[in-house]
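4.2 Preliminary Data

To establish feasibility before requesting continued support, the project team ran the inverse folding procedure on a target of 813 residues. The structure was first converted into the token representation described in Section 3, and no sequence information of any kind was made available to the design step. The complete token record follows.
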């Protein structure tokens, strides 16, 4: 039994042993299988990782070489096409304005023209390892990936370097979604690497700051410094620099104009980053952070700034195309003639088209960063604008008082001049020419529907001499309100070289953009008489030639009778000399002269003086019913101040490219229009107009000018236009004042004559000019009369005192 039991025990033990051994073998097999499987998985993972890395590397290589996505050519990367605004400078070096389009008001700033505070603040805030990386900061990239993307910490900061941000500015269009932005990122990384190859760190900083849009048409650091602080970029202090750098994160969100508190907090974050970077001490950070936000903000707008009418006319000249008759309305033949003449004789007119670059392309006024050096003197321009504003403000108050209570205001109440039906037609025509009417027509509305809209009150901003007024009125009433403001044009130039020194085309460019210096033409009245008298002097007449001062009855070529009227009653029936006649602006003597010499002779003479408008060869032309611009009149009158030589107006002396290389220069153009003998004869009379005639107000308070000067007043029928042309040996200036339409005017001559409407602007302007000792003009300057010129058989006529008083009191014009 025991033996059997032992065998069974042995057998069981052996069985269990075999069983355990088999179990261990199975475990080993399974372990081996797991290891094999794990190795395969790991191998696959490594394989996939290597493949992914290879693909990733291949993609980046293809992106780098432009196979995938857009990679700018090397030439473009080395010379990116920056779009800079063109700058207009005055003759005394003051920036007057800029030409820019949708690309923004960007002006180039070199690295040494940028405050070091801006550079330090930018590096500390946007890219603290800027000096150490080669376009991509992998530490910052990992931080952005894990903290911002995976952990959702929005304050962890971004991973883009300054170079990557520059790449985005230069070459990435606005993305439409997250996927498109993800596609752009690797392209920007590769562009950043290339940019680091081609540019130094300073150049990258400079390019970045020149590209960034700081809002309000302030593109680039130079424009931003001007818009927000009215200073140069190199003069920005640390708190101003920190504010602008703080805007880089999100200029709309950190807008200092709309969100000052939020922007101040962001500025202080920049101070904190500068402290962490060791650029400022803790005490400096704390003291700077306590400072308030201070701005000297002003928008950059084509309609604002110095000489806006001049800048707009200059823009029109520079960008003009070669005139073709089919490009002009049928009624604008004169516009085609004027532009054709300018195209042929004036190198500035059409300059962009006439001056191609070396590669044959044309300059872009809004993108090529041209530097345009004008003849305008900023001080004289300011004086001209002040004179216009001061006088027009006062004159406008007088006009409002006269029209108060009038049912026809601002139009004349004289039904013989303007009937009620004609007045309504003028208002309706103004409605049809308005932007509101044009928009209504584009929307498919009928005339009656649009007319009803003109009777419904709407919110609007309208002009006043105390600033724009927000109000509610009907569009129809707004038209009448706008027309109630008198308009003006003023230009002043140097007669020796044609340099235009001041140019004011209206009372306010923002509200009245029609230029009454170059574009508008109005009847010139008695300012035409010096041209007629000059011709008489050329034909042998002298200031002492005598004529009968009675109303002449003349007949034109068709046999029609013409008997001009005269506003004065002095010396009727007497023989008077030409000096007295022109000094007192006598109409009868002018009529006798044109009858003697012929109307065509006056037309030819006026064209020689530079007036291009078509002129009617009729006898009534002697009294100035023709329409001429202020610019043409000033040009013509330069001959009276410049020895008989007409000087054509010069707007620009030079144009340079963005690097300061001069492309074009412009020189004066002269034409002799008066002979030597005739010149001194007519000059002596025109000087007498100011000393003793209709321009004598200049000699009395509030002007009390003592300078030797000549001039001529002009007033047209119903006081529709008031003129004054004045000149000294150094300056020629012209002023026109009148309504938007001929039927908008003063009813009485005391206020409506040229000596009241226009002359005061000239007087105020000249008084301001002479009061500025920094300007090269003196009241001691004199015209030099040569000893061999016999003006009037040895006599020099001076009107008697009572005649001078009578000419002023009677307001002969």
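Position-by-position output of the design step:
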């Amino acid at each position: 039994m025991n033996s059997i039991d032992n065998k069974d025990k042995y057998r069981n033990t052996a069985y269990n042993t075999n069983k355990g051994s088999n179990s261990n073998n199975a475990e080993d097999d399974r372990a081996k299988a797991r290891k094999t499987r794990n190795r395969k998985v790991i191998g696959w993972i490594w394989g996939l990782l290597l493949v992914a890395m290879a693909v990733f590397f291949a993609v980046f290589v293809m992106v780098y070489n432009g196979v995938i996505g857009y990679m700018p050519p090397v030439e473009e990367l080395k010379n990116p096409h920056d779009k800079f605004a063109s700058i207009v400078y005055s003759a005394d070096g003051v920036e007057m304005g800029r030409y820019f389009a949708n690309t923004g008001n960007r002006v180039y700033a070199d690295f040494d023209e940028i405050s070091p505070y801006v550079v330090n603040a930018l590096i500390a805030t946007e890219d603290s390892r800027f000096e150490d990386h080669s376009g991509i900061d992998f530490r910052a990239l990992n931080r952005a990936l894990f903290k911002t993307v995976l952990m959702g910490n929005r304050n962890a900061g971004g991973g883009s370097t300054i170079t990557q941000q520059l790449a985005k500015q230069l070459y990435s269009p606005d993305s439409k979604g997250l996927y498109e932005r993800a596609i752009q990122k690797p392209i920007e990384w590769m562009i950043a690497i290339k940019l680091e190859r081609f540019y130094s760190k300073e150049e990258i900083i400079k390019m970045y700051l020149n590209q960034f849009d700081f809002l309000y048409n302030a593109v680039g650091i130079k424009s931003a410094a001007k818009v927000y602080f009215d200073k140069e970029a190199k003069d920005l202090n640390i708190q101003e620099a920190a504010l602008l750098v703080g805007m880089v994160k999100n200029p709309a969100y950190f807008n200092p104009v709309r969100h000052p508190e939020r922007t101040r907090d962001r500025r202080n974050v920049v101070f904190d980053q500068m402290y962490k970077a060791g650029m400022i001490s803790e005490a400096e950070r704390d003291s700077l952070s306590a400072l308030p936000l201070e701005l000297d903000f002003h928008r950059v707008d084509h309609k604002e700034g110095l000489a806006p009418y001049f800048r707009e006319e200059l823009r029109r000249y520079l960008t003009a195309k070669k005139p073709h008759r089919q490009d002009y309305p049928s009624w604008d033949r004169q516009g085609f003639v004027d532009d054709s003449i300018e195209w042929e004789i004036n190198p500035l007119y059409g300059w962009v088209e006439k001056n191609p670059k070396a590669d044959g392309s044309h300059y872009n006024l809004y993108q090529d960063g041209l530097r345009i050096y004008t003849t305008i003197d900023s001080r004289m321009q300011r004086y001209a604008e002040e004179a216009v504003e001061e006088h027009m403000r006062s004159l406008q108050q007088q006009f409002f008082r006269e029209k108060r209570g009038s049912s026809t205001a601002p139009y004349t109440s004289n039904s013989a001049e303007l009937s009620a039906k004609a007045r309504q037609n003028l208002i309706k025509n103004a409605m049809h020419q308005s932007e509101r009417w044009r928009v209504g027509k584009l929307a498919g509305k009928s005339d009656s529907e649009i007319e009803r809209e003109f009777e419904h009150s709407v919110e609007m901003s309208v002009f006043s001499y105390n600033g724009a007024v927000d109000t509610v009125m009907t569009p129809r009433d707004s038209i009448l309100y706008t027309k109630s403001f008198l308009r003006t044009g003023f230009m002043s130039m140097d007669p020796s070289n044609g340099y235009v020194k001041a140019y004011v085309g209206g009372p306010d460019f923002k509200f009245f953009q029609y230029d009454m210096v170059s574009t508008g033409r109005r009847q010139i009245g008695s300012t035409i008489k010096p041209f007629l008298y000059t011709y008489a002097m050329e034909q042998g007449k002298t200031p002492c030639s005598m004529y009968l001062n009675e109303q002449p009855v003349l007949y034109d070529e068709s046999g029609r009778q013409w008997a001009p009227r005269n506003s004065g009653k002095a010396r009727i029936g007497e023989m008077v000399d030409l000096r007295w006649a022109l000094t007192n602006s006598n109409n009868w003597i002018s009529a006798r002269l044109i009858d003697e010499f012929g109307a065509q002779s006056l037309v030819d003479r006026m064209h020689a003086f530079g007036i291009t408008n078509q002129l009617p060869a009729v006898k009534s032309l002697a009294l100035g019913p023709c329409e001429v611009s202020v610019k043409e009149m000033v040009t013509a009158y330069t001959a009276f101040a410049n020895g008989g030589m007409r000087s054509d107006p010069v707007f620009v002396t030079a144009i340079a490219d963005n690097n300061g290389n001069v492309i074009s220069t412009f020189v004066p153009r002269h034409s002799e229009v008066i002979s030597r003998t005739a010149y001194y004869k007519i000059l002596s009379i025109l000087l007498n107009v100011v000393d003793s005639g209709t321009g004598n107000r200049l000699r009395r308070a509030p002007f009390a000018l003592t300078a030797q000067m000549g001039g001529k007043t002009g007033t047209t029928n119903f006081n529709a236009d008031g003129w004054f042309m004045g000149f000294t040996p150094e300056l020629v200036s012209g002023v026109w004042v009148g309504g938007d339409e001929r039927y908008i005017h003063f009813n009485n001559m005391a206020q409506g004559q040229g000596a009241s409407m226009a002359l005061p602007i000239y007087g105020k302007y000249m008084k301001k000019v002479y009061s500025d000792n920094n300007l090269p003009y003196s009241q001691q300057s004199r015209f030099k009369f040569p000893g061999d010129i016999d003006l009037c058989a040895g006599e020099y006529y001076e009107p008697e005192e009572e005649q001078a008083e009578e000419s002023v009191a009677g307001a002969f014009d």
